[in-house]
Amino acid sequence: MKYLKISLLSLAVASALAGCGDDDNTTSASASAAVKSVEFSSMPAPTVAADMAKTYSASVAKVTYADGTSKDFPLTYNKLFGVKDKVGGNANAAGQLYDHKMTPIMDPMGKPVIAETPDANSLLKIGSNLFLVSHLEYDWILSDGSEAYKKEGWYTRMPMSMILTGITQGTDGKLSVKSQKPLDFAGVDGLWIPCFGSQTPWNTHLGSEEDYDLQYNPLTTGAATTTAGVKALTEKYFNNEKIANPYHYGFIPEVTVKEDGSTTIVKHYSMGRGTWEQSKVMPDGKTAYMGDDGTHGFMLMYVADKAGDLSSGTIYASKWTQTSADAGGKANLTWVKLGSGTDKEIKALADVATFESIFDAVAPAEGACPTGYTRVRAGSTADECLTVKAGQEKAAAFLESRRYAALKGATTEFTKMEGVAVNAADKKLYMAMSSIRDSMTDDAKEPINDIKLKKSSSGATYTADLKSGQKDTSGAAINSDYVASNMYVETALLGEDLAAADAFGNTSNVDKIANPDNIFFAEKMRTLFIGEDSGMHVNNFVWAYNVDTKKLSRVLSGVAGAEHNGLQVAEDMNGHTYIMSNNQHHGDWATGKNTEVDKALATIDKFDADFGYIGGLPAIK
């Protein structure tokens, strides 16, 4: 195995790890000895059915100390609990969904509606206690096509939730569940498709709302999905006691956990509305970047008025000026100011706004718009002719942020923009683009056609340099020292499509990253961790990429078909390091090429899904 070297400035290993197994080169290194370097071995991709049908790590972290001795720390994957498990005194399954009165939602057959899609994790140390905030992304077990569901007019999406799990940490570093409860989002009108999340510099959890179903325009197919989403929220969350409002969803929720396990929850309307995969706050405590998932998405930057307070600020959308189409492309970025506002005032606008109150809209005629209208393509493949009604600029900026960005000349051609991470020491931003296709390729029929790249279905993880002293496109200063000025792809972070599927059904090179999704940068390890959500790898992987040595290591393999999410790295949590990683959609794959693998996968419960972590690493200080 090749090792991924990690240069560390100042590290120590906790005494609790003194009993871990040593390799043949280890002498009597003290658990408190200074660490010189850490190396991750790259585990091979699984090739036998038994391995392809499980989640496991075969990577080893080799720690070398300042005195020249070394220890090997084998990594292991640990399941904390599954969505069907009742743990920590929770009377219901962990994945149970609830209405606005916290009554369990039941399906037409009288069975509990259990979400099988774990997503974001925030392992937080609050006082002397450990808590895990986790997302339940969406529900798809209900769309089984049975006559019972069809008769009831059942739902393709359900109101979702998060769960709070109290964590016990053993002396050996192993985590277990102490307590668990669902979080109540009734105070913020419920929650819609929470995807990836992050942790703020002030130790709270930032969630997301990836509201594909609530992006409405009466002239497009979005009207049908909005109607379905509103129906699900109205009937199953509010129990017909209130009609759901699409403009209450698509925002960034923040969860504050107190030492006694109590929580407060807010939605940050001032951060703008989109199909948010994630929001990540920069080290200044006020600049944040959002990943807008889907087709014809945009890159949004939020700058808060005050560090540590996301309730008031200014939003900007990027303009991509391409300098190269090769190897994922290169571009310079400039920023278009959309508007400034507070949570309170934008929420008040959301309470009364409709699409029709914000815009005048007509359908293009032969690709052209009438005088006074601007043709945009934002959030879907359909062109729209829009103009903002008088006095509705702020509502457009914050409630229809993507469309308003397009109207203002920003780029709305990103495809499948996913996780965001920051390298504070080097002032670099990382952004996962799950796939470079469709709106990111050269299309002369695009309203603007800013992005003109070569198609790469495997996607890439982009790097952006963060700078101070930047101005927006109007010439006004941007009050941030973390403004992304460009985008490019490092060689190892670009996927590689295969001309034809291999013997297992992979359509992307298994030794390169395919369809990056969740990403997290571990500052002390100088390592970018990347989790896949791929339809191109039979088994999805979690990778570790050292930004200094440029080496890429595979550290986790998931059950075939299962995506990896909930990625977070806690480098020193009471003397141990944890790489949080969940998985969903177990066995949701048939190779069609390998009988033994398909036979093994046929026995797997697709609706099983794990919350868990990679353990075995010493604390990195």
UniProtKB/TrEMBL annotation:
Any single Pfam family the record assigns to this protein: PhoX
Keywords for this protein: Signal
Signal peptide segment: 1-18
Keyword Signal appears in the UniProt entry: yes
Statement: the UniProt record of this protein carries the keyword Signal: yes
Protein name, entry field: DUF839 domain-containing protein
